[in-house]
Write a structure and sequence with these properties.
single chain; 208 residues; alpha/beta; Rossmann fold; nine-stranded mixed β-sheet; two-stranded antiparallel ribbon; 6 helices; 31% helix; 31% strand; binds 1-O-pyrophosphono-5-O-phosphono-alpha-D-ribofuranose; binds uracil
């Protein structure tokens, strides 16, 4: 399942992120804000429990998030740009990281680091974050690593998806829902998303 956020507040931010004149400070803020919208949509089915509370006026029932074992998994390096926003909405989440670098010539993902706590019983919810779904290689490999560690409940949040990446990811992991802020036209001959926003890591970290 691939959900594209259709909302003017998201579209506005995506357009600003695409703009080559947008400097890293503003770009990071836009990534943060857009990630909050992605989290809002992706976490609609998060587990909650009913609680009894007393307002200053009356007794009431409410709900509390009841997901004691959420693990946020940014894919290094660009995924780090989405982490702060995720930790704001899920302050008790754990964080595991996966290092992945695309081979510039082939776009094959090259894993170089992994520090993710293993799942204990499959009840954990792992949320993979990475701004770009281009060929889909990095996301497919990241989720495969999580499955090997025992994760059964996994979601993937990203900013821009290429149709090629969506197709590949659906083939690799049809059980993992994807939430994206924009679905773009295609990949170019260098496996960059068109129109995209360029190299997300460079835009976030100012390394252009
Ligand atoms: C980017 C991006 C994804 C990957 C997407 O990372 O953040 O991880 O490319 O491409 P794919 O779908 O074709 O695998 P990159 O390898 O540029 O590394 P960086 O985050 O360190 O800049
Ligand atoms: N990674 C990026 O950062 N941008 C793209 O367009 C493709 C992969």
């Amino acid at each position: 399942m691939h959900t594209v956020l259709e909302h003017p507040l998201v579209g506005h931010r995506v357009a600003l992120m695409r703009d080559r004149e947008t400097p890293p400070k503003l770009f990071r803020e836009l990534v943060n804000e857009t990630t909050t919208f992605l989290a809002y949509e992706a976490l609609r089915d998060i587990r909650t429990r009913r609680v009894e509370i007393e307002t200053p006026v009356a007794k009431a029932t409410g709900e509390r998030v009841d997901e004691p074992r959420i693990v946020l998994v940014p894919i290094l390096r660009a995924g780090m740009g989405m982490l702060d926003a995720m930790l704001r909405v899920l302050p008790y989440a754990k964080v595991g990281v996966l290092g992945m670098q695309r081979n510039e010539a082939t776009a094959e993902p090259v894993p170089y680091y992994a520090k993710v706590p293993p799942a204990k019983d499959g009840a954990e919810l792992a949320i993979v974050i990475d701004p770009m779904l281009a060929t889909g290689g990095s996301a497919c490999d990241a989720v495969a690593q999580l499955k090997k560690l025992g994760y059964r409940r996994i979601k993937f949040l990203n900013l821009i998806s290429a149709p090629e990446g969506i197709a590949k990811f659906e083939e690799c992991h049809p059980d993992v829902p994807v939430f994206t802020a924009a679905k773009d036209e295609r990949l170019n001959s260098h496996f960059y998303i068109v129109p995209g926003l360029g190299d997300a890591g460079d835009r976030i970290f100012g390394t252009l």
